[in-house]
Inverse folding.
């Protein structure tokens, strides 16, 4: 039995993130681009449409 089927039997509610996709890092340039995104992500929180400053308090 594959992992997805086993998880769905154990947890009937959906637990996977919608529209998620994996990305294979194919070189140093790709790695640097992803690292910069992760490293600077917190600086962009207040611009995110799902960000709510009231939740931080």
């Amino acid at each position: 039995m594959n992992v997805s089927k086993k998880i769905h039997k154990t947890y009937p509610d959906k637990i996977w993130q919608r529209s998620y996709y994996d990305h294979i890092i194919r070189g140093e340039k790709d790695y640097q681009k992803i690292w910069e995104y992760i490293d600077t992500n917190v600086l962009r929180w207040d611009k995110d449409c799902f960000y709510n400053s009231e939740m931080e308090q």
